[in-house]
Amino acid sequence: MGVLVLGVVLARRQRRRRALAAPFPPAWRALLRRAVYLYQHLPDTLTEQLHNDIKLFLAEKTFEGCGGLTVTEEMKVIIAAEACLLLLNRPVRMFPHARSILVYPHPYVAEAVVPLGTQYTTQPSVRAGESWQGGDVVLAWDYVAREAASPADGQNVVLHEFAHQLDQEDGHANGAPRLASRSRYAAWAQAFSAEYEQLLQDIAQQRPHVLDEYGATNPAEFFAVATEAFFERPDALHQRDPRLYEQLQQYYQLDPVAWRAAPMA
User: Fold this and answer.
1) Residue 113: CA atoms inside 13 Å, Cβ hemisphere, count?
2) From CA 199, how far away is CA 148, in angstroms rounded?
3) Which end of the chain is more exposed for a tag (fewer CB within 10 A), N or C?
4) Domain presence at residue 6
């Protein structure tokens, strides 16, 4: 290991130790109780773990305001809390490829690549968030704040974009994140493929579905949308497709169905 690399590693370890040693501010706890619906229902057994993950996230990530927005401490804490829900009970890899979190005040315009016959072209696309493979996460704050406080509406841009980060850790955005063992991939593919096809059929027949229609875009978006439903509408998802719910439960090592009866954190 080179001297420069060793210095970076040691500095990171020291930064993590300082973050974990610091107490979790009471003001942050009060903020999360008020502004993050999922935090309100988090079991006590997971609360301290989430607090530690939030401190690490804030110590390691850079936030940048875009479109004239000044990113406040409250914004950072809310975003960190929702992102870190995806890391609970799992070996903590603090989204290693997400260097910065770019935050706009409102949905923003980005260039999207779209097919045009046998060619591809770009056109403006209004977005509330995106995850750059091997890079940053972009979020629209008004969507973040509204969806964090919304009671189980199935929409959560932070969960969605950071699910993409998990999916992209192996270098591919294909709806299959790194699983605990190779043997897990067959069951994962079966459950996800079956419900993905069902979603396509339900959209074609104009039938309601637990998952947002955006999940039919491709397998990567399906995984991100399924993650939103797993945390925000777990009862409905479990009733709709227990096999899909089980795969997400095994991956995230959590059971949000059981959270509804938990006392407030």
Assistant:
1) 3
2) 25
3) N
4) no
Distance between CA 263 and CA 265 in Å, rounded? 6
* Residue for token pair 């973050």: 19
Average pLDDT per block of 10 residues along the chain, 265 residues long: 53 69 92 96 94 96 96 98 96 86 93 62 78 89 95 89 94 91 94 95 92 94 97 95 97 92 52
Q: Is residue 205 part of a domain?
A: yes
Alpha-carbon distance values, 7 to 2, 93, 138 (Å): 9, 20, 29
Cα separation, 131 vs 83, in Å, equals: 12
Is residue 3 situated within a structural domain?
A: no
Does residue 263 sit in helix, strand or coil? coil
Other CB atoms within a 10 A radius of the CB of residue 194 amount to 13
Is 1 within the bounds of a domain?
Answer: no
What CATH number did the domain enclosing 114 receive?
3.40.390.10
Amino acid at residue number 154: G
Please answer whether residues 262 and 50 qualify as being in contact, where contact means their C-beta atoms are separated by less than 8 angstroms: no
Contact 132, 161 (CB under 8 A): no
Domain tally, the chain = 1
Q: Which domain holds residue 90?
A: 11-261
Cα-Cα-Cα-Cα dihedral sign, residues 133, 137, 138, 140:
positive
Between the alpha carbon of residue 44 and those of residues 25, 48, 148, the distances in Å are: 17, 8, 19
DSSP assignment, residue 80? H
CA distance 265 to 262: 8
